[in-house]
Structure formats: C-alpha cells, structure tokens
Amino acid sequence: MRVDLNLFTVFEAIYNEGNLTKAANTLHITQPAISHSLAKLRGHFDDALFVRQGHQMTPTPLSKRLIHDVRNALATLNTTLLSNLEFIPENATNLFKIGLRDALESTCLPPLIEATQKTAPGIKIVSLRHNRKTMENDLSSGQVDLIIDVAQPVSELISRKQIISERLCVVSRKNNPNIKTVLDLETYLNMNHVVASYRASGAAIEDVELNRYGLNRNITLRCQHYFAACQVVSNTDLLLTIPESYAQLLKSKHSGLNIHAFPIESPSVDIHLYVNKMRSKEPEIEWLVSSILTLFQQTSSKPTTY
C-alpha cells in the first residue's frame, strides 16, 4: 500500500503541536485538511495515533514509537533536497532560533551577534528560554535550531560539543566588612548566600561540591536571575557564587563589586552546543554551528587572577 509522504509531515506537526488547529497553522493548511490526513494515517496504522484530552492531542504508544523514525526520514529527505543548495552568509536572510538560559544569553549573545553581523548581516536570531525536559524533542522538531546549555543527558540523535569551560567564582560588594584580603573557606561558610535558580529547591553546583567535603552554607535568598541576585549582593553582605564570565560581565557594569576565587578546588562549568544530528547537515545549520564553534574557540576564557 502506497502512503502519501505528506501524511508524515502532518503526523509530525500534530505530534509537535499537540493540537490540530496549531498543526494546521504550522503547515499553513486548513484544519479539515489536517483531520482528513489524520484519518488516513489512522486507517493505515489501524491505530488512533492521537487521543484527545481536553484541548490536547496526546500521542498513543504507537505514535511515540513512530516519531523518531518519521523525524529521521523527513530530515533525511530534507537534507537530500538541500544538499545541492549553497548557503551564502552575506546574502542570507534566515531566522535562527537558539535555546539559551538567562545567564548564557547575557554572555553568549553579544559576541555571537557582533560576529554574525559582520559575516551575515541579513540573518535574524531569536533567543528562547528552552525547557530542559523537552530539549531533545524541541531540537528534533525544529522548534529550536540549536541549544547552548550546561551538560544535559541526550540520546545518540543529538550532537553535543563543548564550547566553553570556566571556573566558579564568588561575588561580593566592595568593602564587605566580613572579607579582609582573601575570601577563605571559613569566611565563605560563615557568611550568608544568595542562589540564582529557576528551581524552587535543590542543590546548586557549588553546594554539590561543598557537600563532597561534608560542608554546608547558609542560603538566605533564592531568586531566579543572576542580575537580580547581583543587585542584592551590591547592597548587602551576602555572597553570590557564579561562573566567571558572568561575574566579569557584572563587574564591568557595576563598580561596587569584587570577585573572589571559589575557596575550594571545584570542577569547571562546561557549556555545550546541542544540535539534532540530522539537521546539522542542513547548510545553514552547519554554518551556524561552525560559526559558534569558531567564535568560542577564539574567545574562550583564560585564567584570571583576582
């Protein structure tokens, strides 16, 4: 039995959007056309494929088994069709969607935009706060083109390359009466701290490292953004432990801050670039990935003396 390949494009759109109307809008076709295509697929597989739950279309177990093969097949076809198309940066007008968290947006976007404005002035970039729980699905579905984040578990369908490795450091306000010349471990543990995290609870990377030595600190404030945490630190005696590049950025904008070495030996904070392996063969994605890898190899942080 022959199957129209367009039906699998519809299948992927419904899976990605979880809603027939949204899938229709994504494909720029009518909802009746989506419903008709879904009916054909249901008949072919003898399975509902998607079950309505409220406003959502929830995939059946069969759909969950099919989605990876469908995405790979569509990506392979797309790559084949694009293989002879050359990506010319200076003439490009592409829109790229990059998944970034708060702190990385501040440190990664400025050099990236500066570089791409010189080589591809016509492109546009959208920075999105991605969901780590769905990042693999978002990369496979094209909701984001690539993601820059700390180490996350991914399957063999996703390519992961380290682009940044940096140390943790500690930020305090200038003239903090609790800190003499060097911030030692005893002083660090005796002081109060602020943690910046989107999670309501859970250990930060510095707490994991302290716990390895049987040490704990007192966290007075937990907030969502590094910038807000830094504003608190600049007006109190609290300490903030963050990656070095963001600390240097904050200090360059705020003269009332000091940066100190983290008082114990700690692992580096490794930042990775994530991209779907099949999509990485598309000329424009290949160019963007290559540009980012080259950029951060050139601007990788060097050891700093505080």
UniProtKB/TrEMBL annotation:
SUPFAM superfamilies: Periplasmic binding protein-like II, Winged helix' DNA-binding domain
PROSITE patterns to which the protein is assigned, alphabetical: HTH_LYSR (PS50931)
UniProt KW keywords: DNA-binding, Transcription, Transcription regulation
Lineage of origin: Bacteria, Pseudomonadati, Pseudomonadota, Gammaproteobacteria, Oceanospirillales
InterPro entries for this protein: LysR-type_TF, LysR_HTH_N, LysR_subst-bd, WH-like_DNA-bd_sf, WH_DNA-bd_sf, YidZ_PBP2
Species name: Litoribacillus peritrichatus
Membership in a protein family: Belongs to the LysR transcriptional regulatory family.
PANTHER family (UniProt xref): HTH-TYPE TRANSCRIPTIONAL REGULATOR LEUO-RELATED, TRANSCRIPTIONAL REGULATORY PROTEIN
Name the record gives this protein: LysR family transcriptional regulator
